[in-house]
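Team,

Forwarding the record for the chain on the shared tracking sheet. I've put the sequence and predicted structure together so nobody has to dig through attachments.
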Amino acid sequence: MADFDRAELDEMVRRWLQANKDCEAAGNWRPLAEFYTEDATYGWNYGPTQEFMAVGRDEIRDIAIGSEMDGLEGWTYPYQDWVIDERTGNLIGLWKQVCETKRADGRNYSPEGIGGSWFRYGGNFQWSWQRDFFDFGNVSSLFMEMITGNALSDGMNKRIQRAASGEKLPGWYRIGEAPVPLW
């Protein structure tokens, strides 16, 4: 017997997808914070030395889907498929990352490889846990292509300046030093 109702999990995905579309259209992902429990955690790895972790709904709103998404206006993250486990409440959503800016050949800037999010359902149509994964090499390559092609928006340029400033950014930790383990 399943520990989670499949219809409820399917409804969670439906609500999540609609909210993502709404936030993408508005260029503001912060409203997605209401889809997380008060004590949820959200993190990702960023190469061999860094990882990101937000602990609690407020940090998720302010940092993970706030400052970390600022500058990505005009980007969409269309989900391609879902894997849903009713027994554990684990869901994996596979997505692409697509910029509205187009290359000279007419294709949108978009990293190759696979991107996705691993969620744990916390009940009441909220996530208790999210971990993102993506092809770091392809994302890095895409941003270098956009930099050299002068295809970055002002917001993306600000993101890069912030990251290159040397200041400690909230939510960023050396591998293994985050307040909550990544895995």
